[in-house]
User: Fold this.
Amino acid sequence: MGSSKKLTAVFVKSVKEPGKYGDGNGLYLVVSQTGAKRWEQRLTIQGKRCDCGHGSASIVSLADAREKAVEYLRIAGNGADPRKEKDRNSEILTFEAAAREVHKGLLGSWSNEKHGNDFINSLQMHAFPKIGTVLVSEVGSSDLLKVLAPIWTSKNETARRVFQRMETVLKWAAAKEWRDGTPGDVTLKGLPKVRRTKSHRKALPYGKVQEMVSALRASNAMTQTKLCLEFVILTATRSSEARYAQWNEIDLKKATWTIPAARIKMRRDHTVPLSLRAIQILKDAQCLYGSEGYVFPGARNGRPLSDLALSGRVKELGYDVTVHGFRTSFRTWTQERTTFAREICEAALAHLVGDEVERAYARSDLLEKRRKLMEAWADYLAADRGKVVRIG
Assistant:
């Protein structure tokens, strides 16, 4: 073992004699028989004598080795294991890298691609520029405030979604033991109160839906847009469910469309009975676009219609309503103009009815009763307003 005097950079570079040369704080320069040099530190960690490596002397300078030795000494003095701390810190991701990992892991859990895109795009726009490079273990309430404060009052709904998504990333990091919990509650207390008014999606009165369908058919929209939008209205489904419909979900002989659980809110397959008009729309789409892939393909090859293709067309026709609102139009019509039972109407909208016990015993999907309801809705939309139509 060498002298207890402090080492110098010149000595570290020139020494060739094999041995261990001390520098203080338990740090040694170890010269092997082959002439290779490395840094080693002898410490007592949690009651045990240990030797910790600090890398090759050809890469790690004397100054850096001393800095590491002091840090290890501090951590060991606090009762922790500096070797584990080093490994842990080397694994920890930045907030942006962690968010992308979370996004990747959640992709399969979203009903459609749009939700996944919204998650990462909102963070990319608002969070990454401000806290993307901060280690996910170090993100605190002040960091979240940097992201939220500029948009909290002007875009409150967006800000709340961004906040929830940042919380999701931090909870994931906590599950990996990279941090203790999240600063969510503290963060919200640092933001001004914003009065929130609950707004429902705008819906067209059911008496005007047939008029809109007629205007849609006469419009100059792309054929697949016209077919898809009318199909959405006839089936009382969500825009994404129809836009992402694929031919392997359709059974023309049985007149059914089975939406897979992954694409529906209630997370179980939902079979939609198809009216005669809905079947005709599908046959028209089949003649025009084939019977493989998306039923209503978008302008770009291999892609479905966009949400804007449908919502934009409704606005262009002069109706200030949402596509989702046609579900409300349908439900109001069932209440005011038919005698179909509530559970049949709710099942048509893929809504769960009753508590868990009730649902456990009610195994039927009421398909044939729903078929009569959807045929009645199609008849109502096709009817001449001057005639009386028997419904239900």
Notes: The beta strands are 19-24, 27-31, 37-45, 48-56, 250-251, 256-259, 270-273. The longest strand covers residues 37-45. The CA atoms of residues 157 and 199 lie 12 Å apart. The radius of gyration is 32 Å.
